[in-house]
Amino acid sequence: MKILVIEDAKHLRRYITKGLKNAGYAVETAADGEEGLWLAEDNYNDVIVLDLMLPKLDGINLLRRLRDQGNKTHVLILSAKTAVDDRIHGLQQGADDYLTKPFALEELIARVQALIRRKYDVKTNKISIGDLSIDTVRRVAILQDTVLDLRPREYALLEYMAIREGHAISRAEIEGHVYDGEKEVFSNVVDSSICILRRKLDSPGQCSYIKTLYRQGYVFNDPSHEN
Q1: Which CATH topology does 126-226 take?
Q2: Cis bond before residue 223 (omega within 30° of 0)
Q3: If we measure between CA atoms, which residue out of 3, 39, 8 comes closest to residue 21?
Q4: Contact 32/56 with Cβ under 8 angstroms?
Q5: Dihedral sign, CA of 152, 154, 160, 165?
Q6: Less CB within 10 Å around the terminal CB: N or C of the chain?
Q7: Global confidence as pTM
Q8: What is the pLDDT of residues 189-200, one digit of tens each?
């Protein structure tokens, strides 16, 4: 999943980014409101973490512009303003959640996870598809009682595809939601990652959890439904 962090305080931006990346998220950052608005218009953001006191364009006006454009990306406001009226104002302007500074990183990550579940209409922390169970809080995947050995990016890809179960997912969508624009995103990275997941998920002689769709990308399904 891809998170956009718009925060002008360098040390806090780095702290949040490191925590989110350690949790397996792809992260992009902006240090001012104008750059943040440009990045926020990217349809591949799953959640935007937005500071209010930003140079060039403040957070509330940035949020208003997004909502006026019809952008529905979930937004978590970060602010040192703790008054009830400030929180209400932020939510009334279109924010989905509001977290006051200082905050615990674990709480920020938990709130980001909750917003992602809301976006994809997932009601619990557990995703079960066939013999596969995914715990989105612990960020582990269990297949037939065996914990899969997944690297953070492999887990991120698996979670994203599982949340989109039954829907065609293009390579561009996967690159946008799972990777963060780093130079490591080569032309074949998605296909290579899909192959790795298939080796870890699929049993010999059985259908795959991940089906390739000609000119569309991939779809994630319970393989028992293919038999």
Answers
A1: Arc Repressor Mutant, subunit A (1.10.10)
A2: no
A3: 3
A4: yes
A5: negative
A6: C
A7: 0.82
A8: 888 889 999 999
